[in-house]
Amino acid sequence: MKLKLIPAALVMLTFVACKNKPTTKDHTSDELLEMAGKAPGMNAGSGRFTVKTPTGWTRMDTVISRIQYAYFVAPPEEGNPFQANVNIITQQLQAGFTLQQYVATTEKEMSTLIQGFKKQEEGERTIAGEKARWIKYRFVHHETEMTLNGEIIILVKDNIAYAITLTTPKDALDKYSKELEELLHSFQA
Which of 5, 135, 144, 161 sits in a 20 to 30 Å window from 126, CA-based? Predict the structure, then answer.
């Protein structure tokens, strides 16, 4: 279960961006979760969104280190120690903080705190009628040295940021794009 929670830790650290200064990439997943859990406005959108679980996946709503998130896990693949997953977390934005600023700050924090972070692509789209920005990236999990891929999609509604993140084994983002799209098309805030 610990390895499944690692992507949540890596994405949750991005919510620290609004108040805390960047540090180094030497943090464990537990330390990143603890830092993110102390971020101002964390969980402001919990209970304010609905989303359908992708077909064949399992949903778990949970709290870890004071962070509430919806966590969706793909069926296990034989011989692969990592299960693809999507997590959704929320945070109240500071007054006047825009989607563009939030995404830029998130990317800066990810490049500072995540070992081997490398942005691959970025763009815009619409989710639930709201403008959203996305970043596809690759990173190395600190404790296991496993290379993983991620796609984070961030939208803001009523001054609350919703971060929806798909994390997969190396080079497997496209394999799970159908399930991510199924989830995104059902998302309502």
Answer: 5
Cβ neighbours of residue 101 closer than 8 Å, sequence gap 6 or more: none
pTM, 2 dp? 0.83
Which structural domains are found in the chain, ordered by start? Answer: 2-186 (3.40.1000.10)
What percentage of residues in the chain have a pLDDT greater than 90?
A: 56
Q: What is the DSSP string of 21-53?
A: PP--S---HHHHHHHHHTSTTBTTTTTS-B-PP
Relative orientation angle of helices 29-37 and 2-12, to the nearest 10 degrees: 50
Check: CB of residue 142 under 8 Å from CB of residue 28. Answer: yes
What are the distances in angstroms from CA 127 to CA 33, 81, 184? 26, 31, 7
Phi/psi class of residue 66: alpha, beta or left (left: φ > 0; alpha: ψ in -120 to 50)? left
135 burial (CB, 10 Å; 0-12 / 13-18 / 19+) is buried
Is the distance from CB of 81 to CB of 3 less than 8 angstroms? yes
Residues 74, 68, 24, 134, Cα dihedral to 10°: 60
Q: How many residues are recorded in the chain? A: 189
Strands 85-92 and 118-127: unpaired
Cα(99)–Cα(97) distance, integer angstroms: 7
